[in-house]
């Protein structure tokens, strides 16, 4: 693996926010101009797709689906970005320009755009609670469910006495979410 | 609750053994409340994932906004810079042509106007994060020298050893016909360590003296600029010969 790839994979594990922003900025400009030249995509559309590509990259790394790059970080990111763009264009019934062989390119067969931000009513309500919930709950839940840390790792990271303390706190956090959810359901927001 | 929660999570994450899974599903069938808890927890996990994805998305959206603003600002500055440099070059060209056409002895004031072009803003593009710096240079570029001067003097107080605000204060003074004050600023530059404004400051100090009709001081300063093979040396030789040297 090249230094860049090691940087990316290690960075996503240690500090995903900063790493995603850093790599977003490394390839952003090139992706936007490529998407404009190839598909006539404007900046708003292509930056939206490239952001999704970054998040999908992170999820793949976290799920262990991506431990090394067959080609390069750039090729990998551009390929996801292209598939996201083609999928979104298709959904919006927007045509992409004909390619050299006179066909319109479509997303790869094995690519499926995951539902990243919207779910059913209940899931959306929970997502809304997560966005507004305070610490320590937010950090504990993020470490455990989003970043895949163990209880021991969270205890070290957040200065808790031990894993058991974190576990009890996590249960309290889940109860808090359930409580907030019930209240939301009652007033129907 | 904790143990049951662990069990539900292990089931949902597919971490139970084949036997444990079968056993758990059998219990779900017979226990309506367990079944409901599993369904609720599944929604909770999905909701958590969506919520954290949204946060990442908004982080990247903010970054995108920032990048856009930076590139808009950059383009503006480049345009302004190209414009002012282009203008300065055009003015210089016209003046030089006028001079070569006339090619006759000129008085100090005429010579001054033939040689004087305001110095381009070479600072602001690298200091875009600071509003005060930005404003000083943008007033300078707009030709609002009195306001630029006020901001340059503020900058100078904050950082007395930075040659840029001192140099541009000199130019501003020259622009508003305060050649005498301009000279004090250009003199100050010479007292600092050698920097990128050292030579320009001598050149403009020479022009300030020319404007005040102090020929011998002008000649003295121009002689300091002769030697190196650069534009200041060439311009100085030319001006010296116009002054009869």
Considering DSSP H and I runs of 4 or more, what fraction of the residues of chain B is helical? over 70%
Helix content of chain A: 55-70%
Largest sheet data of chain B: none
Cα-to-Cα separation, first versus last residue of chain B: 99 Å
How many alpha or pi helices of chain A? 8
CATH superfamily of the largest domain in chain B: Tetratricopeptide repeat domain
Shape of chain A: globular
What would you note in describing this structure?
The complex is a heterodimer of chains A (189) and B (245). Chain A contains eight helices and no strands. Chain A is mostly helical and 189 residues long. Chain A folds into two domains: 3-91, Rna Polymerase Sigma Factor, Chain: A, CATH 1.10.1740; 121-186, Arc Repressor Mutant, subunit A (Orthogonal Bundle). In chain A, helix 5 crosses helix 8 (163-186). The mean pLDDT of chain A is 88. Chain B is mainly α and 245 residues long. Chain B has two domains: 2-68; 105-242, Serine Threonine Protein Phosphatase 5, Tetratricopeptide repeat. Chain B is rod-shaped. The model of chain B is unreliable at 125-129 (pLDDT under 50). The chains are: A mainly alpha (189), B mainly alpha (245). Chain A binds chain B through residues 16-17, 20-21, 24-25, 28, 43, 47, 51-52, 54-55, 58, 115-120, 122-131, 141-142, 145-146, 167-168, 171, 174, 177-178, and chain B through 1-2, 5, 40, 43-57, 59-61, 63-64, 67-68.
Briefly characterize the structure.
The complex is a heterodimer of chains A (189) and B (245). Chain A has helices spanning 3-14, 16-39, 43-62, 73-91, 121-132, 137-146, 151-157, 163-186.
Write the topology of this structure.
The complex is a heterodimer of chains A (189) and B (245).
Chain A: H1 3-14, H2 16-39, H3 43-62, H4 73-91, H5 121-132, H6 137-146, H7 151-157, H8 163-186
Chain B: H1 2-12, H2 18-30, H3 32-102, H4 108-115, H5 131-142, H6 145-158, H7 163-175, H8 179-191, H9 198-211, H10 215-225, H11 231-242
Helix pairs in contact in B: 2-3, 4-9, 5-6, 6-7, 7-8, 8-9, 9-10, 10-11
């Amino acid at each position: 693996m090249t230094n860049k790839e090691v940087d990316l994979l290690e960075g996503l594990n240690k500090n995903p926010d900063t790493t995603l922003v850093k790599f977003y900025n490394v390839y952003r400009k090139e992706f936007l101009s490529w998407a404009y030249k190839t598909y006539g995509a404007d900046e708003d559309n292509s930056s939206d797709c490239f952001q999704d590509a970054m998040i999908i990259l992170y999820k793949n790394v976290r799920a262990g689906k991506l431990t090394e790059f067959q080609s390069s970080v750039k090729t990998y990111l551009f390929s996801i970005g292209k598939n996201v763009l083609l999928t979104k264009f298709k959904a919006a019934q927007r045509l992409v320009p004909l390619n050299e062989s006179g066909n319109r390119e479509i997303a790869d067969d094995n690519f499926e755009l995951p539902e990243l931000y919207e779910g059913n009513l209940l899931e959306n309500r929970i997502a809304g609670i997560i966005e507004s919930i305070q610490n320590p709950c937010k950090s504990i839940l993020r470490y455990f469910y989003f970043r895949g840390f163990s209880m021991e790792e969270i205890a070290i990271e957040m200065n808790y006495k031990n894993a058991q303390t974190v576990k009890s706190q996590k249960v309290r956090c889940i109860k808090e979410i359930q409580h907030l959810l019930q209240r939301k359901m009652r007033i129907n927001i | 609750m904790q143990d049951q929660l662990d069990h539900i999570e292990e089931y949902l994450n597919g971490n139970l053994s084949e036997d444990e899974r079968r056993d758990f599903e059998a219990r779900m069938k017979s226990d309506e409340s367990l079944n409901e808890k599993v369904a609720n927890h599944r929604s909770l996990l999905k909701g958590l994932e969506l919520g954290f994805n949204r946060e990442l998305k908004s982080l990247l959206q903010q970054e995108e906004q920032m990048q856009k603003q930076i590139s808009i600002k950059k383009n503006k500055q480049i345009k302004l810079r190209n414009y002012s440099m282009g203008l300065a070059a055009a003015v210089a060209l016209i003046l030089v042509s006028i001079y070569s056409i006339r090619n006759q002895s000129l008085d100090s004031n005429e010579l001054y106007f033939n040689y004087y072009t305001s110095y381009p803003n070479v600072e602001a593009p690298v200091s875009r994060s600071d509003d005060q710096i930005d404003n000083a240079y943008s007033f300078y570029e707009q030709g609002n020298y009195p306001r630029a001067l006020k901001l340059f003097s503020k900058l100078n107080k904050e950082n007395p050893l930075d040659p840029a605000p001192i140099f541009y204060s000199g130019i501003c003074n020259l622009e508003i016909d305060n050649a005498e004050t301009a000279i004090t600023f250009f003199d100050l530059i010479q007292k600092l360590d050698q920097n990128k404004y050292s030579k320009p400051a001598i050149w403009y100090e020479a022009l300030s003296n020319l404007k005040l009709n102090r020929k011998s001081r002008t000649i003295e300063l121009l002689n300091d600029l002769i030697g190196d093979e650069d534009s200041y040396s060439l311009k100085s030789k030319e001006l010296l010969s116009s002054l009869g040297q």
